[in-house]
Amino acid sequence: MIRNKVMRLFVGFALGLFVSLGVAQAGEAIEGSAKADKLESCVRDTPFMRRNHFELIEHQRDITVHEGIRKTDSSIAGCIDCHVRRDAEGQPVPINAPGEFCATCHTRAAVTLDCFSCHATVPTPINPAPELLEEVKAHAAGMDPEIIEKAHAGMESGSAKQVTGN
Amino acid sequence: MSKQTDQGRRDFLSRAATAAAATTVAPGVFLHSVADAAPRAEPVTSKVRWGMLIDTTKCADGCTACVEACDVENGLDLIGKPEGASDAEWERQRPRWIREVKLKDNLTDRITTMPMLCQHCEFPPCVDVCPTGASFRRADGLVLVDRHTCIGCRYCMMACPYKARSFIHENVLLKSTAVPRGKGCVESCTFCVHRLDQGETTTACQDACSKDGHQAIIFGDLKDPNSAVSQAMSKYPTVEVRADLKLNTGVRYTGL
C-alpha cells in the first residue's frame, strides 16, 4: 500500500516536472481535510508537541498495554484519527505516506518509525465489509496493493463499529 | 479448519479431570460496580479476574463459530497465506487464537470437541521464560504480550502447555486500529482486551457461540460471586486442563 502511494507520488512528481501537470492525483490528500485542521490546538501546546510527542505516546503505550487505561488524549489511534487527511473521495490517506503528517518531519529529521508496521495508518473499524474481506482473502497470497487499498477504503466506510483510541 | 485429533491429550486430560475435581476459584466477596461502557480511566486491579468456562457437552462437532468470530474480531483473517506455502503448512502455522481440538476416548470411541485457547494462567509459564518481560500477566488476570518489547524469540511458544501462542511470520499489510500486529512478534488470545477496556463484558467467541444457540462459552469475572461464570462454576464440576501443572488457569472446562 505504501509502495503504491510512493509509486503514485513518484509518477505524479515526474509528470509534474516534465509535463507540468498540476492536477491532483486520485487518492491525494486534500489540504485542510484532517480534523486537526479545523481545531486550534493539539492535545498539548504546539511547542511541547513538536519536542515531546514521542514521549507522550510512548508513555501512553505502557499505560494502555499494562494498565488498560484507554481514557486518554495521547493514544496513537487518537493521533491518527485527528491528524489523518482525506482524498477527494473522502477516503483517509495513510498518515505515514510521503508528505503526510507523521512522515514530513521524520523524513527531514531522518527518523524511522517501526510503529506503522503494526499500527493502522488510517482509522479502521474492527470488521471490513464482508465482500472486501472475500476479495482480500482470495488475493491474500500476493497481497496486491490495489486490493489492500480498496479494503482499507471499505474498512473506513465498512460495517461494524468504529474503535478509536480515546 | 484447525481440527486436530490428538490422542495424547486424552491421557493428560483424564488425569486433569481427577486432579481438579475440587477446583476452587478465588473467593472474592466484595461487590464491585457493573462495568459501564466507557473507556477505562483507572488502572486495572486484581479485584477482577477474567475467566471463562467452556461446556464441552454443548460444543457442537463441526461448528467453528468461535474460531471464525475470533479471526474477524482480531483481524486474524486479514493475514494472507505466504506465497509458496502449502495449505497444510499454512493450517499448521497460521496465527490462530482459538483452535478447535477433538479428543477421542479410545475405550468408548466417544469424541469430544472443544475450543483450546490461552488459558490465562495465574502462574503462566510463558511469562516465566520471557527474556524481555514482554510476556506479562495483567492485574486483572489477562496474560498478554507487550509487542513493543517482544523480540520474537518464541520461548513462550515452547513453554506454553496449551500451544496457545502464534507467531507472525510475515509483514501484515492490512491492519485494524483495535488490534495492531506485525511481523516478528508472538501473540495469543487477549480475552478481547480492546472490548474489556471499553467497558464491554463479553468476548467475540462467547457472543458467536451464544448467537449460534450453543452457549458453550461463559465469560466473566471469576472473583465476582454473582457473575454468570462464577455461578456456573459453583454448580458444575469443572476441570483445568493439565491441572497437574498447578497453573491455576482462568479457563475451565466441564464435560471433559
Strand segment count of chain A: 2
Number of strands of chain B: 10
Helix content of chain A: 40-55%
Helical fraction of chain B? 10-25%
- Strand proportion of chain B: 15-25%
Determine Rg of chain B (CA atoms, Å). Answer: 18 Å
| Biggest β-sheet: strands ordered side by side in the sheet of chain B | 1-3-4
What overall form of chain B do the CA principal axes indicate? globular
Mean pLDDT of chain B: 86
Distance between the termini of chain A: 26 Å
Q: What kind of assembly state do the chains in view correspond to?
A: heterodimer
Give the low-confidence spans of chain A: 1-26, 136-145, 152-166
The count of domains of chain B is 2
Count of helical segments of chain A?
A: 6
CATH level-3 fold name of the largest domain in chain B: Alpha-Beta Plaits
The radius of gyration over CA of chain A amounts to 17 Å
Q: Label the structural class of chain A.
A: mainly alpha
How does the overall form of chain A come out from the CA principal axes? globular
- If you average the pLDDT of chain A, what whole number results? 72
Strands of the widest sheet of chain A, in order across it, are 1-2
Q: Stretches of chain B where pLDDT falls below 50 for ≥5 residues?
A: 1-35
